[in-house]
Design goal:
- Helix content is 34%, strand content 21%.
- It is an alpha/beta fold and 486 residues long.
- A hairpin with a 5-residue loop joins β7 and β8.
- The model has no long low-confidence stretch (mean pLDDT 93).
């Protein structure tokens, strides 16, 4: 008789966990509270405009391909993507703009041309980012940090030998400031702390691993939009026999004598040998594991930042805006401090404005664009979000209209928004924090909840547990779970 596995939640890590367990011979059922799969990786339809609702950056696509490969399927039969020639366009207050090319020679040429500086420090910094990745990814991203035997591996030995060069004992900002020879580049590289909801003025310099993922490995775009990642994995899971149950909110994960027994939904009990919890770790212990001992240090970690997102259907085309576009503000240190002191957003609430415009023919009418407009905001701690949203919208429109020399508000044909309250409501992310805990401490990685628990048969996958948030790390959390289950 086949063993049974239940996955609580169908976020990207939940889907990947289901696929991996199905490949191990388990009979897998996925229970999802929403009426759609994907968690944050879903879409919004407003009139004739379609928007990818959540993640707008796609790196390390091989982790998605791997799920098809282990299932003996050809990835391109389900899911196709292309590498972006330009990873991002950057716009500064003084009128400077930079296009960050994926080609190294083009990138250096652009920086030299626009900033009139020697590009050797930038080359060296990018090589340092690659060095950090090569030295640490097998030790800290691709295996559990919470199993003693893993510390006696070649990967850990390699990492220990590299410690003097990993920027562990300085902040990300100080490392960037020391390495780079232009304040605009410092600001640009500081931004990568936000990829896991952290503050570059507090987070350790080892987070400079992140630029390598975007610059060297590359950023990519799925040919049918970000939601196609979710849909392709759902299709694969179904072919493997995974059963999906939507609008089925799990009320409790059942545990007996430190052994998982299944889940409870309303008055119904569903038994299983293995349960993978893809819920945010804080509400998981608060609502699903009420009788289990709570990991106090983990639950008390500083939350990551959240986001305020506007979905705007724009009835005009902007050729100067490619897929990803960042509009920087000037005093970003003060704004990062505001983010992580849980204050209301300041009068100019933009550490940066992130505009993603997909430009797929099916996403907007002809000569129009679908704008995903995001700024960083604190997680919810009782702020007046209606007031913040109104102020932020006004300031964002003012800034974009000034830089793009166009009245943007007059072009908005369709509109909706996400704020921390709505994010929590739709995804059960505690206080709307996008990545669970921030990494504003050099030991933060070790304090993230492990992918297993003291309860036999209970595992955790997703952005709020090891190794962290974002599509690649969520997929790695599922891979770790798959390796731990047996």
């Amino acid at each position: 008789m086949r063993k049974k596995a239940i996955v609580v939640g169908s976020g990207i890590a939940g889907l990947a966990s289901a696929i991996r367990l199905a490949n191990k011979g388990y009979e897998v059922a996925v229970f999802e509270a929403n009426n759609y799969p994907g968690g944050k990786l879903t879409y919004v339809q407003l009139g004739n405009y379609r928007f990818d609702a959540g993640p707008s950056l796609f790196t390390m696509p091989h982790f998605v391909d791997e799920l098809f490969q282990i299932s003996n399927k050809k990835p391109s039969d389900y899911f196709t993507y292309s590498k972006c020639d330009i990873t991002c366009n950057y716009f500064y207050e003084d009128g400077t703009s930079l296009s960050l090319y994926s080609d190294r020679a083009e990138l250096l040429k652009e920086v030299k041309s626009k900033l009139n500086i020697d590009t050797k420090p930038l080359e060296k910094h990018l090589k340092r980012s690659q060095f950090i990745y090569d030295a640490t990814h097998k030790a800290f991203l691709e295996q559990s940090l919470h199993i003693t035997k893993n510390y006696f591996s070649k990967a850990i030995a390699k990492c220990i030998a590299a410690i003097p060069w990993l920027n562990l004992f300085t902040t990300m900002h100080k490392a960037n400031e020391k390495a780079l020879n232009h304040p605009k580049l410092v600001q640009l590289f500081d931004r990568y702390a936000t990829y896991n909801g952290s503050n570059p003025y507090q987070a350790p310099g080892i987070l400079n691993i992140i630029p390598h993922l975007e610059f060297e490995i590359g950023s990519f775009f799925p040919k049918k939009g970000m939601q196609s990642i979710t849909l392709s994995l759902v299709d694969l899971a179904k072919e493997l026999g995974v059963q999906f149950y939507f609008e089925q909110k799990v009320d409790e994960i059942l545990v007996e004598n430190k052994q998982v027994k299944g889940v409870k939904i309303g008055n119904e009990t569903h038994f299983a040998d293995v349960v993978v919890c893809n819920s945010d770790i804080k509400p998981a212990y608060q609502f699903l594991l009420k009788t289990e001992k709570k990991p106090i240090k983990t639950l008390q970690q500083e939350p990551s930042s959240s986001a305020l997102i506007f979905y705007w259907g724009i009835k005009q085309s902007f050729p100067q805006l490619d897929l990803h576009n960042i509009f920087f503000s000037e005093d970003y240190k003060e704004e990062f401090d505001t983010l992580f002191q849980q204050k209301n957003v300041s009068s100019d609430p933009t550490v940066y404005i992130n505009i993603t415009s997909k430009k797929l023919p099916s996403d907007a009418p002809e000569n129009s664009e679908n704008w995903f407009v995001m700024i960083n905001v604190p997680s919810n701690s009782g702020q007046n979000w209606d007031e913040i949203r109104t102020t932020a919208r006004k300031n964002i429109l003012s800034k974009l209209s000034r830089i793009l020399k166009t009245d943007i508000e007059a072009l908005i044909e369709e509109e909706d928004y996400l704020d921390p309250i709505r994010i929590e409501s739709k995804t059960s992310s505690h206080a709307g924090a996008l990545y669970g805990a921030s990494s504003n401490d050099r030991m933060a990685a070790f304090f993230r909840h492990p992918n297993f628990s003291s309860v036999k048969g209970l595992y955790f996958a997703g952005g709020s547990v090891h190794p962290g948030g974002g599509i690649p790390l969520c997929l790695l959390s599922a891979k770790i779970v798959g390796e731990l289950v047996d």
